[in-house]
Structure formats: structure tokens, C-alpha cells
What we know:
The chain has 9 helices and 4 strands. Helix content is 63%, strand content 11%. It has helices at residues 25-33, 47-79, 82-107, 123-151, 159-187, 190-217, 222-250, 258-267, 301-318, and strands at residues 8-11, 272-283, 286-295, 322-331.
Amino acid sequence: MSDEGDHRHDHDHDLSDEHDHGHSVWGRLKHAVVPHSHDHVDSVLIGEEARAHGIRTAWVSLVVMAATALGQVFIVVLSGSVALLADTVHNLGHLATTVPLLMAFQLAAKAPTERYSYGFRRAEDVVGLLIAGVIALSAALIIWESVQALTHERELTHLGWVFVAGVVGFVGNELVAIYRIRAGRRIGSAALVAEGNHARADGLTSLAVIVGAIAAWFGYPEWDAIIGLVIAAMIIWILILSLRSVIRRLMDGVDAGVVPGMAHAASSVAGVRAVDTARARWSGHTLQAELAIAVDPTFTVAQGHRVAVEVERAVREATPHLAEATVVVLPGI
């Protein structure tokens, strides 16, 4: 404790934790789309290591998605399939959103300035809004094309190639989705997880393309356009959930159990009389925490410092993805 009665203690640390989630169908679907700060992964990465991992993931998935989309563009021109067009447009949307995400990861490494004293890590969350905008445009285009196909007869050809493209699209998208989601949860990036679920939605739309091709084989070509509308609905659903996650982070929101968990961990430390304040917020893929604890007013500066060290240790052990923790020590009553 200083003469003014407070002591600040800051550290950066690697963390891991386990958390059980609901096993209902809705719970699993929601958990797959919305990132959680308490997700368990093989090993949590923070700091520069997390940023480098995010950049590597974005580049690898960008190459795979580009190859998948370009192959599908050729088949769309041959076949005239609306469902395949919907899938292809969504894949191309990944290219438009992954590039600014890469730029945000690079910008996060820039040193803080007098104007931006907290640095530029929030750029990652701002890109999340851009990703949502591109997803919305994709849904609008798909709805337009599907309505046009329903009102104007369109001949479907090369159904065998459409079927193959659907299979390739599903495999490519699912591989990218798994890769992105695991990486996003490992580094705590909501934007990267959203991109992964974007790819997963593409995988499901590729399955819809397969169903549409089979329906056309059996003489029901109108199902191609109907499936296009179903795909658009799925994209809008992903858009809503992604927006909720990104906006929550921009508003300094965290999962419901994070702050109570931090306060409980701090209060369990010997010497802590009370936890006056506990706060947490995300800055990009970095979780930051601030706590104010009350201790015995007769404690010396050294004793207060030791309590702060123990509180910081307890909090980081209880909070995955925590990269920065500030502990303020106040004299108790």
C-alpha cells in the first residue's frame, strides 16, 4: 500500500480452465456459434503468441477458402444453380472479411499512442462489424437471386458437377470452420470464431446444394431456388448471433460468470476483507481485469503487496484468456 492507501499490481499470464455447458440441442448450437471466455481448449494463448497464431490461422483458411470458391464459380457458370451460387457468394464473402481481419491482427501489434493510450486491439472487434455487414449483403444477394429463379424459369445443367461442387464445398468449409473455431477459442478472438462459424454455415449450405441437385435429378428444379432461400435464412441466423457477440464485446460485456468468478477467487485469498470492485472487459482477443480489494488497515506496504500478488494469481488461475490484471489495495474498515 502507498501513502494514499492503494497499490497497483499488473501482470500478463497464460491461463486455462474447464467449464461444462448444457447438453441440449439449442445449447450446443449456441455454444458452437457464440464464443465464450471460459471455453476449454488444449492450451490458451495470449499476447504476441496469440496474435501470431491468429494471423497464421487467417492466412491458411484464406487460401483454402479461395481455392474452394474459385472452383465453385466455374461450376456456377456452367450449371446456373442458384443454391450453388448462394454457397459460392458466401465463400467469396470470406475472402472479403478475412483480409481486414488480418489487418486488425497486424494493427494490434502497434504501440499505444497518446491519443490511443490503450493501443489498437479493439480494431479486431470493429472488423467484426464489417464481417456482419458482408454477411448481410450475402444474404440479400441470395434472396434476390432465389426470387428471380422462382419467378423466371431457369434451366439447370451439369447436375453431376453441381453435386461434386457441393461435396467439395462442404469438406473445404468444415475443415476451415474447425480450424478457425479452435484457433479463435484458443486465443479468445470473437471475430475469428465468427469467421469459423461463417465457414460452418457455408458447409451446411453446401449440403443444401447437394439436396438441390438430387431434387433436380428427380424432376423438381424449383427446389434449387427454395433451398437458396433456406440458405439465406441460415445466414441471417448466423448474422444475428455474430452481431450479438461482437456488439457485446464493443460494449465491454463478458460472459455472465466471469466477474463473479473473479470476485470469488479474490475473496478466497487470505488477508482480503472484501472485494470492493471487480471488472473485466475484452480488448480484441485480450481479456483485461481490474479489482479493488480491502485489507486490514494496519498492513504495511509489503504485506499489502503480498496480498495483491496472491489475489492476482488466484484470479488468473480462475479466468481463462486473462492477459492483464490490475489489483488495487485499499485499507479496510
